[in-house]
Design goal:
CATH superfamily: Carbon-nitrogen hydrolase
Keywords: Hydrolase
Helix content: 25-40%
Distance between the termini: 16 Å
CATH class: Alpha Beta
Oligomer: single chain
GO molecular function: hydrolase activity
Organism: Streptomyces pristinaespiralis (strain ATCC 25486 / DSM 40338 / CBS 914.69 / JCM 4507 / KCC S-0507 / NBRC 13074 / NRRL 2958 / 5647)
Largest sheet: 6 strands, mixed
Structural class: alpha/beta
Shape: globular
Number of helices: 7
CATH topology: Nitrilase/N-carbamoyl-D-aminoacid amidohydrolase
Order of helices and strands: EEHEHHEEEHEEHEHEEEEEEH
Family: Belongs to the carbon-nitrogen hydrolase superfamily. NIT1/NIT2 family.
Strand order of the largest sheet: 6-5-4-3-1-15
Pfam families: CN_hydrolase
Radius of gyration: 17 Å
Length: about 270
């Protein structure tokens, strides 16, 4: 399975519509991949709080429309990063979109853990409640998480129990905490014996320098590829069998004793 992570920059001088067109063009260029991933809140910028209300959209709004056409043209599964969603009741959510190779909306995930403590996303947005996995036919089942979620291992245990073999994490992670980003990505891979595909942004969001360094980690914790700080496309070939092999050779997941019980039957 070939996966491409599109580490794009959010330039404040670039309009949202221009960035959508640019992202769509990049997606179309990945026609040889099975899965393409964009970062968190790339249309507006993860820290551009003052623009959240103005740029909010529905899950099938302009970002979905542009990305669905691109996914269909490229024939890829597209994790289109996340958008600021405005629900029918007016609540804003940080919502990830997964689009099929035929351009259909296959899944949405509302970010559960909101960053900011007592400001920003934490007070402006509602919290999601659902764990979301998406089986990609003939390859892997992906589990969805977003940015700050990376710090909460119990979420990923739930995704693995739901059948996830790869954990896809778009982010707008600050450069000043880049070491946490790579450390936590490897930890989530090792403890869950799953691939981690963590796609960050380049550039600066509302004055916050971004870490970049998108990273792909295998189920044994080995880094398969890591980007630098600037705009970059990271393409990696994944072996779906490596998940099963790792879990068979070192079956640590079955020895869990605290928290959620281990699955009653082994996951594929």
């Amino acid at each position: 399975m070939r996966a491409s992570l599109l580490q794009i920059a959010v330039d404040p001088d670039e309009t949202v519509d221009s960035r959508r067109r640019r992202a769509a063009s990049l997606v179309r260029e990945q026609a040889g991949s099975e899965l393409v991933v964009l970062p968190e809140l790339w249309p507006v910028g993860a820290f551009a709080y003052q623009q959240f209300e103005q740029e909010a959209e529905t899950p099938t709004g302009p970002t979905f429309e542009a990305m669905a056409e691109a996914a269909k043209d490229a024939g890829v599964w597209l994790h289109a990063g996340s958008v600021v969603e405005k629900a029918d009741d007016g609540v804003l959510y940080n919502t990830a979109l997964v689009i099929s190779p035929t351009g259909e909306l296959a899944a949405v995930y509302r970010k559960i853990h909101r960053f900011g403590f007592d400001k920003g996303e934490a007070v402006m947005m509602g919290a999601g409640e659902d764990l979301v996995t998406v089986p990609l036919p003939g390859t892997l089942t992906i589990g969805l998480a977003t940015c700050y979620d990376l710090r909460f291992p119990e979420l990923f245990r739930g995704l693995v129990d739901a059948g996830a073999q790869a954990l896809v994490i778009p982010a707008g992670w600050p450069a000043r905490r880049r070491e946490h980003w790579t450390l936590l990505a490897r930890a989530r891979a090792v403890e869950n014996q799953a691939y981690v595909l963590a796609c960050g942004t380049a550039g600066t969001h509302a004055g916050v320098e971004q870490a970049g360094h998108s990273i792909v980690v295998d189920p044994w914790g080995e880094v398969l590829a890591e980007a630098g700080p600037g705009e970059e496309v990271l393409t990696v070939d994944l072996d779906p069998a490596k998940v099963t092999t790792t879990r068979d050779v070192f079956p640590a997941l079955k020895d869990r004793r605290l928290g959620l019980p281990a699955p009653a039957t082994p996951r594929p």
